[in-house]
Fold:
Amino acid sequence: MLLSTVATAQRLPPAIPVVIDETDTTAVLVPINAVLAAFKAGDSKAMLAHVYPDGRVTATGIRGPGASGVRSQSWAEFAQRITPEGAFDERIYHPVIEIDGDVAMVWARFDVRRGGKMANCGFDHFDLVRDNGVWKVMNLSFSSQTTGCGN
Structure:
């Protein structure tokens, strides 16, 4: 009986709402906005100042026939791709923020533009931790697609 209940369940129950101070939500977005600014500037050093280098960047998306759509690397490895020549403009929209003490997550739609042209889009999932009063991005996971991105 339990198996049939689990098999028919399509969604998790809604999370218990946590009261979040607007000051906290603003603070959580500070390192995310700094990381996005570093992407645009092609400045890996600036990016690494707002993340835990041993955290992970995990991407999903179609990579070609027979290839896994999951790619994962440390922030330190990912930083090697952040150069002025490889700069890109990533923007997030309507972030959903959840905070519990010193742990936070941000879920947001994003798009990436290179040379002013749409490159890809999807959803970002940032998880952050606050250490000594400072929020830093621990991990970033994102989906990626090249269709349905808008203009």
Q: What stands out?
A: The chain has one domain: 20-143.
